[in-house]
Give the backbone structure.
Amino acid sequence: MTVTAAAIAVRGLVSRRGPAVILDGIDLAFASGEVTAIVGPNGAGKTTLLRHLAGLDVPAAGQVELRGQPLGSLGPAIRAWSIAYLPQAASAYWPLRARDLVALGRLPHGADLSRPTNTRDSEAVQRALHRVDGLRLAERPIDTLSQGERARMMMARALATEAAVLLADEPVASLDPAYALETMGILRAEAARGACVIVVLHDLGLAARFADRIVVLANHKVAADGPPAMALAAGVIDAAYGVTFRHVTVDGVPQPVAWERRDNY
Amino acid sequence: MALRRTLSRISSLVLLLAALPAAAQVPQRVVTLNLCLDQMALRLAAPGQLVGVSYLSQDPHLSVLADRAAAIEPVRESVETILTLRPDLVILGKDSHARLKRLLRDADIRVLELPWATSIEEAETVIEQMAVALGREGAGRTLIAGMREQRRRLTWTGASLGTAIHLEANRGTSGKGSLMDELLRLSGFRNLAADLGIGSFGRVSLETVLAGQPDLLVLDGAANASPARATEFVGHHALLALAGKAKLASVPTRYSICAGPDNFEVMRLLAEARR
Amino acid sequence: MNRWLLLLVAMLYLVSLAVGPAWWPWRLGTEVGWTIVWELRVPRATLGMLIGGVLGLSGAVLQGWLRNPLAEPGVIGVSACAGFAAVCAFYSGLAAAFVLALPLAGIAGAALAVALLMGAVRAGTGTVSLLLMGVAINAIAAALISLVLALSPNPFAYQEISLWLAGSIVDRDLRYLAIAAPFMILGAAIVLGAGRWLDALSLGEDTARSLGADTRSLGLRLTLGVGLMVGAATSVAGVVGFVGLIAPHLVRARVAFRPGATLVPSMLVGAALVLGADIVVRLLPTASELQLGVFTSLVGAPFLVRAVRKAHAAWLAT
């Protein structure tokens, strides 16, 4: 993986909120066709990193680069076209129809929901609905959907952009195992189609199974970065989380289980 | 306490006066608190007798005697300001300021309530009552005699001169039973607003005015001089269009706002307009 | 739907031209007939249509932007601020000296109120915080209006301003139309193209930005647009309340709750509402004509109560 091959990268990223430093000199590059999981304890700066990648926050130092171009120098239209962002606990303020909600993902392509959509947009919406297995729910208002179904529609909205980079902040939080597995499968499929998928996760087991690469953030820095077996090794995550893990391996995939707090941490 | 001393001095004065025969009860320091009563008192009172008039009387748009009122203390409706003038008689309108009157009576100040006159005849009655209260019966008789003479001279005795309507700010008009109604009739006009069944302080839409096609429009042409939201009515295009056909009489508000000797100026202006 | 609404507005406009105390004015002669229709009824009907349109549109814009079905120029104090600014222009004599001072002051007042609201409600768009903000802005505006009136040399200021604030389009002549209409039309043009970004905002500000919305310039644009519309409308007609609440309310379910899709229908419904209300107040057998704003408030306030109750029940309530 060379620097120029990176779909998106951060260089020396420093992020501050008031006097507090949230991210302290992060250097990361993310390749197309890969799923990268960002894990770490609460307050490590995972969400902040994702917001910087999405161009929502302005770095105090360093920069985010999209295919080698500084993100700040690109207009909002190009940024939106290239990067899809699914925030944590995504919701809508109005009981929109599911298909309309998904179609919002086509706004970066110039779609206007008040005008007749062109075929490319409606096909992309249809594809996105199909990928989340949501076609039969498409005409329902989202307030009549279950939480899991609604989360799927939010995911479909992000997919509909068909952007080169897909950022998802804890997409499986508060989902039952079936939905969680399905969601991770969808992200995997996006990467298989060539997208650069970056996902913040709390579930290390899911991260190990579905990610090509895991970045562990702790204390505002990158604590580990590599394939699951390496990044989730005993010496790394135990210190990062302040927890003693039982390192179980299932079918050759590490499945760390948090066992007890490390009081002397 | 200066106030208490003043109060006790006033009350002792009142007690003293109460003991004297009625003829001697001529008030020395009089305050009037109503634009229309101010206008009468300014004409009736002896020099120095009137020590306070309502602040409205100093507004030249509303008060014919604004220059004379300017020499006298302007008063707002607060007991404290009135007490500092040490009045022995306060004259107010009949149906207002109940609380103020009670407080003044509590302070042992004589309060005279006079009715709101809505016709020239009623104004004469009020002038008579006020003249008695001020001990100025002679001045009252002279004023009333003058009014009767002017009224006789200015009343139109010929055939009806057609319809007229009085227009005020906020689409206001003077309907049946109002002072302007009487003045229009005395000047030989039929009041269109009264014909339309509008009461004395009614409102009328421009369309109604246009549809009624009055022969004379009566309005205060100077009303736009002071910034007011609603007097723009007077400058409305449609009204100007009508004004091309109808006659126009500009009657300043100060002559028509109170019933009294100033109303004959209105009749003079209406007489001018019919020529 | 828009086609039917357009037809309804056109019909009400024609009815508005036909209704008045003189009914068929040509029986009074051609000249008076034309004067009544051209100088009185045309400005009134046109102003009613424009004012209703921009108030309905402003309601839809504010509701989309603040993501709150209770946002309305009157309820949240935008009209009151415009009213205050117009009162200032009036009693300072500025309006008499310079024709455009009145609408410009109204626009400045309205824009200031919108900016205040957008700043304060940026973080949380909860129903309660929004309404409290509206209560505060309304109270400040009312107090400032009283202050200006107390300083005014005109002894009838209180009476006439309470009449004016109650909202009316009676006897406005063509000059009023000429000074206010361009601003209202400009404001509408500025906000009408923002529909897709209001759609995006239904996912929250962050997601909207990730979809390419430049929320800062959008905020400026909407502030300017709503300021132009509500400011110009209020400066010629006083406060006509609740139109901006009712209009989007009536159309929302019919456009599947898409904020951007409520804009044009809300504008048309608003125009129809004010034209209709203005016809009703002319026909009501009251001694003197009921103020238009009084009538819309009488009809609209129950809508607010219902909307508050529904907002509490709905899942989207905060």
